Amino acid sequence: MAASIKHELAGRLGLVYLIVMVIAALIVIKALHVQIWEGDKWRKMGRSVSFKDFEVAPNRGNIYADDGRILASSVPYYSLRLDCKAIPDTLFRKKVDSLSMMLSRFFKDAPTAEYRKKLWQGKYGAKPNRYLLVNKKKISYTDLLEVKKFPIFRERGTKSGLILERENVRLQPHRDLA
C-alpha cells in the first residue's frame, strides 16, 4: 500500500513538473519570437518615444534672523495659461465677454476687446491654442485666489481650461544679510 501511494505521488509530481516545464518553454519561445522576429518593430518604437529632461528647483524655506525677522523667503508666483479646447463651446460663448472684462480690470494693461480677441483667436482661430498665455505678468497666490473666481476659471475640473505654471521666487528684503 505504501508503494502505491509513493507511485501515485511520483506520477502527480511528474505531471506538475511537466506542466511547469511546458510553461517555461512557452515563455522562452515567446521571448525569442519577440526578440528575433518582432525586434526591429519594438526597437523602432523605443527610439520614437521621447523624454523631456528638466530641472525641478527645490522649494527653499525661510531664513530668519536671531530676532525673528525674515531675511529671505520663497514666494510662489504663477503664470496663467488657458487650454481653449478644454472649455465647452456653450460655456465659452456665454462667458468670454465677462472673462475678458475681468482680465482687463485685473491686469490693467489692455482693453476688454483685446482680451476678447485673444481668447477668441485661441479658441476658434486658424490654429486653436491648447496653451494660450493669458498674460505675461506673473501673479501671487492671493491674486490667484481672486482670478479663480473669474467666469470660466471658476468651473470645476478641466472645464475651466486654466493651466497654472508655478515658479518660486526668492525674496530678500534685507538684501545682503541672507
Q: C-alpha Rg, in Å?
A: 31 Å
- Total beta strands: 4
Number of helices: 5
What's the order of the H and E elements?
Answer: HHEEHHEHE
What overall geometry do the principal axes of the alpha carbons give?
elongated
End-to-end Cα distance, whole Å, is 89 Å
Unreliably modeled segments: none
- On the 0-100 scale, what is the average pLDDT? 87
Helix content: 40-55%
Proportion of beta-strand residues = 15-25%
Main beta-sheet strand count, sense and barrel state: 4 strands, antiparallel
Structural class of the helix and strand makeup? alpha+beta
Report what the structure shows.
The protein has 178 residues and is of the alpha+beta class. It has helices spanning 2-36, 39-48, 89-107, 112-124, 141-147, and strands at residues 63-64, 70-82, 132-140, 162-171. Strands 1, 2, 3 and 4 form a four-stranded antiparallel beta sheet that branches. Strand 1 (63-64) and strand 2 form a beta hairpin. Helix 3 (89-107) packs antiparallel against helix 4. The longest helix is centred in the N-terminal third of the chain and has 35 residues, at 2-36. The radius of gyration is 31 Å and the shape is elongated. The chain starts with a helix and ends in a 7-residue tail after the last strand. The model has no long low-confidence stretch (mean pLDDT 87).
